[in-house]
Amino acid sequence: MKEAVRTWNVICGPTLQRVAKLTQERRDKLAQRLADDLDGLPGWEKLCHRVVRSPFLTGDSETEWKATFDWLVEQGNLIKVIEGNYDPPRPNPGPDPANDVPNAVGRYPDGSTVMSRRAWGSAQHNPGDI
After folding, report:
1. What pLDDT does 12 receive?
2. E strands, the chain, where?
3. What is the distance, to the nearest Å, from the Cα of residue 127 to the centroid of all Cα atoms in its chain?
4. Are 55 and 61 in contact (CB under 8 A)?
5. How many other C-beta atoms are found inside a 10 Å radius of the C-beta of residue 121?
């Protein structure tokens, strides 16, 4: 248990509140999470890294709320972090032009035909529509 607390303090401590004392209640909850929900200490370390990569969990929100050790060792909260609920948003690569034009059919410079995915799907089901 002490190694898990040291891991929290090293990875999360500079950004979040450090753990100063490992009470029996904290010890029990941490032991349960390590045994049931994580792959022991390696899983805990990955989780700590995931927490500090989350803008929301590190206070970068309107409320400036930050995750704590006690919050994380609650099973429901830990599962949400594992499932990526608090991961930073992924950059939007933008629209897929092949899906934006419903029935786009065009020609490449060499004369070959190009069509959007929607048009291709439509052509597969209704060849006379294209």
Report:
1. 96
2. 105-107, 113-115
3. 41
4. yes
5. 12
Among the ranges given (29-38, 75-84, 120-129), the one the predictor scored with the smallest mean pLDDT = 120-129
Q: What is the pLDDT of residues 20-69, one digit of tens each?
A: 999 999 999 999 999 998 989 999 999 999 999 999 999 998 899 999 99
Residue 10 is encoded by which pair of tokens? Answer: 């090293």
Q: Are residues 43 and 76 in the same domain?
A: yes
DSSP string, 29-65: HHHHHHHHTS-HHHHHHHHHHHHHT-TTTBT-SSS--
CB atoms within 10 A of CB 82: 14
Q: Report the distance separating Cα 16 and Cα 8, nearest Å.
A: 9
Q: Are both 18 and 74 inside the same structural domain?
A: yes
**Looking at the domain assignment, is residue 92 inside a domain?**
no
Amino acid at 30: L
Residues 6+ apart with CB under 8 A from 14: none
Torsion of CA 23, 43, 72, 5, to 10 degrees: 30
Q: Is residue 74 part of a domain?
A: yes
Give the domain range for residue 62.
2-82
